[in-house]
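In the design runs reported in the main text, the only information available to the sequence generator was the tokenized backbone. The following block is the verbatim input for one such run; it is reproduced so that readers can re-run the procedure and compare outputs position by position.
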């Protein structure tokens, strides 16, 4: 089956777009971007209702780039100057590097996990006397909550943004050869919009274990699973998959 068009279930933004643009030109295929979810940021009143005071915490645990954005956005809105002494525990290198958008790495204490949340537990235990803040969306894996509750630490979760499903009704009669998903909420949005979605010959690409699990749970057949040691990024995986289907 020749690949003619691909839908990325996220909106176009900065560096995210570049590798896909190159694939589109090189392979002569159409790649569209459409966010399957909407992000609704919390405001300072929402944070105070949760009885969260950023000044009470000495370590922030970041499990996504979105949580980084909304933590610093609300810190600024609430006139909280994040101290240089603040420690950060980041689930991946990508999230840690993204922190540079808001802080200068020099003299900052940053711990970086490999990929999964469980990789962060040694760093959390190492700082067990500290007070931990976990910024997140309103959707969070129960497994993360369970793992933190098992530890002998003081921690709190701050819901700093909410996830809503986008209206995709205009895609009802549009077909793509490949649908690309990066988080479980995007797959849930697909079925929220199209409860009777039939995969037929559409290929599905997923990034991360949680997204893959949700895809399987929804009854989808997965053709592209990322990351792997050989293909750490979605753009690399798509490029290889397309090349193999040209032969």
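Verbatim output:
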């Amino acid at each position: 089956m020749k690949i003619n068009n691909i839908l990325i279930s996220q909106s176009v933004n900065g560096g995210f777009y570049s590798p896909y643009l190159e694939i589109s030109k090189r392979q002569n295929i159409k790649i569209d971007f459409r966010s399957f979810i909407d992000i609704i940021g919390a405001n300072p009143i929402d944070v105070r209702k949760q009885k969260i005071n950023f000044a009470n915490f000495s370590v922030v645990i970041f499990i996504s780039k979105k949580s980084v954005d909304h933590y610093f956005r609300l810190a600024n809105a609430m006139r909280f100057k994040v101290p240089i002494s603040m420690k950060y525990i980041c689930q991946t290198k990508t999230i840690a590097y993204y922190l540079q958008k808001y802080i200068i790495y020099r003299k900052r204490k940053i711990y970086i996990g490999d990929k999964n949340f469980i990789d962060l537990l040694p760093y959390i235990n190492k700082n067990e006397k500290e007070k931990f803040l976990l910024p997140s969306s309103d959707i969070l894996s129960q497994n993360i909550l369970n793992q933190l509750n098992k530890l002998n630490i003081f921690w709190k979760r701050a819901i700093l943004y909410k996830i809503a499903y986008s209206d995709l009704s205009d895609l009802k009669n549009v077909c793509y050869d490949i649908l690309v998903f990066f988080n479980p909420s995007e797959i849930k949005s697909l079925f929220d919009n199209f409860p009777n979605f039939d995969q037929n010959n559409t290929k599905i690409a997923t990034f991360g274990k949680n997204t893959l699990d949700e895809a399987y749970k929804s009854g989808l057949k997965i053709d592209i699973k990322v990351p792997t040691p050989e293909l750490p990024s979605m753009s690399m995986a798509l490029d290889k998959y397309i090349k193999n289907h040209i032969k």
